[in-house]
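Notebook entry, structure prediction.
Reason for the run: the old model in the group folder had no record of what sequence produced it. Starting over properly, with the input documented here first.
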Amino acid sequence: MPHVSIGDADIYYEEQGQGPALMLVPGLGGQGAFWDPQVRDFARDFRVIVHDHRGAGRSTHSRIQYSVDQMAADTVRLMDRLGIERAHYVGHSTGGAIGQTIAQDRPDRLLSLVLSATWPGRDAYFRRCFETRKELLLHRGFASYWRASVVMLRPPRWISDHDGELTDELRRLIAAPPPVEVLASRIDAIVAFDRRARLGEIRCPTLVVVAADDTLTPPFYSEELAARIPGAKLAVLPTGGHFAPTLVPAEYNTAVGAFLRGHLERR
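New structure, fully documented this time:
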């Protein structure tokens, strides 16, 4: 399986397809496998790259103070090592925070930008959600953290209909949980993130996409992003919670794929 060194960490990545580069960057869980329902579809037209964030999955679990700036720098270094000068970019949740950072600090590296179920900067609601999740992680352990996260990330009906799948997922995850101190630092990183004052600097074509029933990064965050980013388009999916790419992939791929393919000529 491919790893590449970015200097002080090894990053696990996979790629599929040919054409303009497309970076699919996951959220706080940090594992590129999140994008499995998108890769084959988008690889018909793009060279699709997914990777595990530093601190997650099969990448180096560095014991550092994590930040969104550091995550963005890691992503750009990965692009450098893969010979990617400019890429289309889809970032989900934390991946969207990373995308905002790259679009503002390194606008020369992005051809287009999709901000998926993400947020422009901290507020009281976001802080309270992640204070709760971090407290459970530190004082009750990863299993309690994950159980609470389930009801924040998925719609109620989906949870009711997939209880057995969730039980199996927890069993798999607790067999090899992420290091608590690394996950806690990554939570601190996203709670500290706030780039809303610079959203007007983003100039690449931008799509903001969210599910109407997302309770972790609710639609009003996406509405703010779309209003502040010049020329940004907003797509609101009827359902999917915070995990629309995996729970309603057909609807998600249609909305995001149409936007990306509409900018294929950008090189």
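Summary: The chain has a mean pLDDT of 97.
The old model has been moved to the deprecated folder.
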